Amino acid sequence: MVSFARTGVRTAGAWARVADRGGMKFSARFAASLGALALASGMIAAGSAAAGTVTITYSGTADGINDPGDLFGLGPSVTSGAFVDTFVFDLSLGARSSCCGGADEILGGSDWGTSSPLISSVLTINGHSVNFSGSSTGEAYYQPGVFAEATSWYVPGGASDTSRIHLIFGADTVPAAFETSFSGTWNGGQDGDYFSVCGPSQSCNSTDSTLFGNLHPTSIVATFSDGVAAVPEPATWALMLFGVSAVGAGLRFNRRSGVVSAAT
Questions:
Q1: Band of pLDDT at residue 228, cut at 50, 70 and 90
Q2: Cα dist. 15→19, 194, 214, 251 in Å?
Q3: Is the pLDDT of residue 238 over 80?
Q4: N or C: which end of the chain has fewer CB within 10 A?
């Protein structure tokens, strides 16, 4: 990128020198026009590179809840209830791939040597919420026409708690790409899984956890938004730098020409 940008600056300067030596006003105007075009192209490229976010919301019932520490604030005697779990993924993070009959997957986190694409995962049961957002693994997976899957996993090690939430939901309306919003009801296929919070000495099962419960989703709503601002690619930065340089070179020549004409 640096060498490309320097080349652009030198090229713009060369246009100005040619115009200055030969009195070629056309060359200066052409340099400025070329620069404006490059700048506009770079700005368009930067804007079109936005990846966006996808918000996946599962709703249904939770049962088998074991919450001796009352993390949800429901009281330790509550073992079931209505739930809503909302995952938000940034599609510009992690690694995105296609496999297995056209499935769309985004995966990342410290376990994978990348930034996690998961922005948040908030589980609400009977109006009480717990944030399960995890930096170890964040994953979203669409198998078109079959199921949609979302995972948040935080495994810090040491004395800290491990948290995990995983949902898989069978729906005929699941699209082939995250950029397509959709909704659906359970088609009788794959469904549910569990959530848990457990300490390093616990088994993370239904009886030996700080928090545990089963999830049975009955509906899903997934919404794509392209409102995330993307960082321009190196080539886009270089194109924009060249545009600024060329416009500046043309303006400098025009100012010099104006001074000479007034003096004569």
A1: very low
A2: 6, 66, 69, 11
A3: no
A4: C
* pTM for the full predicted model: 0.67
Token code pair at residue 115: 């930034």
- Cα Dmax for the chain: 95
CA-CA distance, 39 to 164, in Å (whole number)? Answer: 46
Contact 19, 32 (CB under 8 A): no
CB atoms within 10 A of CB 212: 21
CA gap 172, 237 in Å, rounded: 42
pLDDT, tens digit (0-9, with 9 covering 90-100), for 200-213: 888 887 888 888 99
The CA angle 124-207-56, to the nearest 5 degrees, is 25
Nearest one of 162, 156, 112 to 138, comparing CA atoms: 112
25-48 vs 234-263: helix crossing angle, rounded to 10: 150
- Placement of tokens 């000495």 in the chain: 201
The answer to whether the CB of 138 falls within 8 A of the CB of 118 is yes
SS (H, E, C) 112-157: HCCCCCEEEEEEEECCEEEECCCCCEEEEEEECCCEEEEEEEECCC
Pair of tokens at residue 145: 């026409």
CB 171 within 8 A of CB 148: yes
